[in-house]
Recover the amino acids of this structure.
């Protein structure tokens, strides 16, 4: 039998004495060498290595951080969404250090030098604190104008204030007037007394009234279900067939709703020119004059909610944002009193009534989030207080699109309230939050792709209005989520004007794939709105807001990252869309065009300053990766962060995903040209930002999100 010779293996664990003497240690305690030499045998505990999972390590880091936090701190809005034993969201959403470690645990070693100017941070809200206010020189409405930090409306005003200050321009240098409620469309009405008979004169014929109703139904589509069609039409026939004055008072809220439908219908079909009052103002003023000013609605509560919601929609369309917020908030509070935000019993109330309540609630929910986000105000209802379902069994196409709009509206409000809530955020934390947002957007993209493939053969030509609106809202979420990267670069470059040197390397640490995907969404938005086969909404404000947001985003992007050629196609498209709205009598679009022209002028001046001072030109290679210039070799480290020019190491889940260059330059999905950004592209970027573990998920277990049928990992 052949005896195999074995080479003696070095003991993995050695005592301190053997290690210092560089001799083999037996590994026993005490070891043979220490016994022979009569030495104290000690083993270094620091030498021991323990192999644990990355998720377990993250949990330990979060537990250590939570232990250090002072007890008794009130939970944040985000932390209300944790489920069971899930880690408290506040330890991830509100902690810069832990969130940065989730993206790159090695960055912890740089904490000792946090005071350095080269720390990788994102100016998610690059406007000074305390909040910016503008003094009203005329003081006709108020002493000052508050520019809310998260307000989409005040973004233009805040940019104008910041850029005119940093560029040392005269404060009156081509700066348009800041319009408040009623400045564009002055509107007033006299409230009728309870004893006065209702004025039913001057109403259209029943045929024309039905025509206007159908026009309103077409424009609102399935996205805003602010009236029950069968009930409304039946009562309208009764109104014209009976004593109009008597019918108008019983029920009173129905007549208010009827007048509001006439106001909206006239606004949709009329093309006013050079008129100070908005279209449909005559019927709207009559409706508001008889609107009850109390909340006790009795059995007419649903009619009251619908009427208030329609009033809020009309006011929001004519740029009376604050008044719209009051009306929508009033409707939401009446809905609270009726329990519409909860699961109502179908056996007692009937299936039709419960369905009407559910549709009305989620229409209110969407409207409230849209108006509140526009003003930068907190939402009227917290998601944790809602239990009524959005996804129900046997959902049809319209119900699915309605459900997806609700979830996209919820996501948009989450983005604004989470990413934009602080002035400065560490890059790691921002990336982790954005990664979760993009992961959720990938899920929504998959739903849209399935609907497009099944119902429309992957073409935008025959897509209904609600589907088109859904895709635009989808891109709006991407634009808003990636905008802080552009704002951060703008803030840093403005701060460096007039200085001899610039630490431009820090810009290369930003994830250029995120910047590129935001640009792509903005370009796709303008492409959809410019499509002659689609219907451009010229009264409701949504298409106007989509147009302006996309144009502003591309103005910033093309100034901060100049393309190889001077391509102003996006600007021409945006101005063309606004011109079409102006031709239809939309004075709000005229104001927005003036504001856009002013912003474009400021960025042109900024580009001239950058060129004059010889600051480094930043570019996006294929709209995907950053370049510092042909002869530059930027630093490969930024406080331990993985440089953006070299994507992070893929995890197991991303091993089969192509590089981001391939994702951004080659369309692997034919739907990519229809939707703009496919779920595949989202997931490719998600894989590059970090690992597969998601430390926090928004609303993962709220009952109303899944209805017991469909589970979504994010709002």
């Amino acid at each position: 039998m052949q005896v195999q010779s074995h080479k003696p293996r070095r003991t993995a664990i050695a005592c301190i004495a053997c290690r210092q003497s560089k001799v083999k240690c037996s590994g026993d305690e005490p070891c043979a060498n220490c016994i022979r030499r009569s030495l104290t045998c000690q083993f270094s505990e620091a030498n021991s290595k323990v192999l644990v999972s990355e998720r377990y390590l993250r949990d330990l880091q979060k537990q250590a951080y939570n232990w250090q936090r002072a007890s008794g701190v009130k939970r944040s809005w985000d932390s209300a969404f944790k489920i069971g034993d899930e880690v408290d969201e506040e330890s991830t959403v509100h902690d810069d250090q832990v969130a940065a470690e989730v993206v790159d645990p090695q960055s912890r070693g740089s904490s000792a030098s946090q005071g350095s100017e080269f720390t990788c941070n994102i100016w998610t809200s690059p406007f000074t604190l305390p909040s910016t206010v503008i003094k009203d020189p005329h003081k006709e409405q108020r002493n000052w104008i508050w520019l809310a930090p998260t307000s989409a409306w005040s973004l233009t005003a805040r940019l104008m204030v910041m850029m005119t200050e940093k560029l040392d321009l005269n404060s009156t240098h081509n700066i348009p007037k800041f319009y408040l409620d009623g400045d564009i469309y002055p509107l007033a009405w006299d409230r009728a007394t309870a004893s006065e008979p209702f004025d039913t004169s001057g109403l259209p014929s029943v045929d024309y009234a039905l025509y206007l109703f159908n026009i309103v139904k077409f424009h609102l589509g399935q996205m805003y279900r602010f009236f029950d069609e069968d009930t409304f039409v039946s009562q309208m026939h009764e109104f014209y067939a009976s004593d109009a004055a008597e019918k108008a008072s019983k029920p009173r809220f129905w007549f208010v709703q009827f007048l509001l439908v006439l106001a909206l219908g006239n606004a949709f079909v009329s093309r006013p020119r050079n008129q100070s009052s908005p279209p449909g103002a005559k019927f709207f003023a009559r409706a508001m004059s008889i609107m009850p000013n109390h909340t006790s609605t009795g059995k007419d509560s649903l009619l009251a909610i619908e009427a208030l919601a329609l009033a809020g929609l009309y006011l929001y369309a004519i740029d009376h944002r604050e008044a719209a917020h009051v009306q929508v908030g009033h409707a939401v509070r009446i809905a609270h009193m009726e329990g519409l935000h909860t699961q109502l019993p179908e056996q007692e109330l009937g299936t039709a009534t419960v369905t009407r309540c559910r549709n009305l609630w989620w229409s209110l929910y969407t409207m409230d989030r849209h108006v509140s986000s526009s003003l930068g105000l907190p939402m009227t209802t917290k998601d944790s207080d809602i239990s009524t379902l959005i996804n129900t069994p046997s959902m049809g196409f319209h119900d699915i699109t309605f459900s997806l709009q609700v979830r996209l509206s919820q996501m948009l409000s989450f983005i604004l309230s989470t990413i934009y809530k602080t002035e400065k955020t560490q890059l790691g934390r921002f990336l982790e939050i954005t990664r979760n947002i993009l992961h959720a957007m990938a899920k929504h993209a998959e739903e849209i792709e399935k609907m497009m493939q099944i119902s429309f053969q992957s073409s935008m030509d025959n897509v209904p209005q609600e589907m088109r609106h859904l895709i635009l809202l989808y891109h709006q979420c991407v634009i808003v989520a990636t905008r802080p990267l552009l704002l951060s670069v703008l803030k840093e470059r403005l701060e460096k004007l007039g200085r001899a040197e610039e630490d431009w390397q820090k810009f290369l640490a930003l994830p250029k794939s995120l910047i590129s995907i935001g640009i792509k969404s903005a370009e796709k938005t303008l492409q959809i709105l410019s499509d002659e086969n689609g219907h451009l909404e010229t009264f409701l404000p949504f298409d106007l807001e989509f147009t302006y947001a996309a144009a502003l985003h591309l103005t910033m992007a093309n100034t901060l990252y100049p393309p190889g050629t001077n391509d102003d196609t996006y600007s021409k498209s945006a101005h063309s869309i606004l011109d079409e709205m102006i031709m239809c009598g939309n004075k709000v679009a005229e104001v927005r065009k003036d504001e856009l022209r002013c912003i474009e002028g400021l960025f042109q001046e900024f580009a001239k300053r950058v060129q004059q001072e010889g600051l480094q030109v930043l570019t996006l290679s294929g709209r995907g990766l950053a370049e510092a210039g042909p002869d530059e070799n930027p630093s490969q480290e930024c406080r331990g962060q993985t440089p953006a020019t070299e994507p992070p190491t893929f995890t197991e889940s991303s091993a089969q995903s192509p590089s981001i260059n391939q994702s951004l330059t080659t369309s692997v999905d034919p739907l990519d040209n229809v939707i703009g950004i496919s779920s595949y592209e989202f997931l490719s970027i998600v894989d590059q930002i970090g690992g597969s573990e998601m430390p926090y998920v928004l609303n993962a277990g709220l009952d109303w999100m899944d209805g017991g049928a469909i589970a979504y990992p994010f709002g």
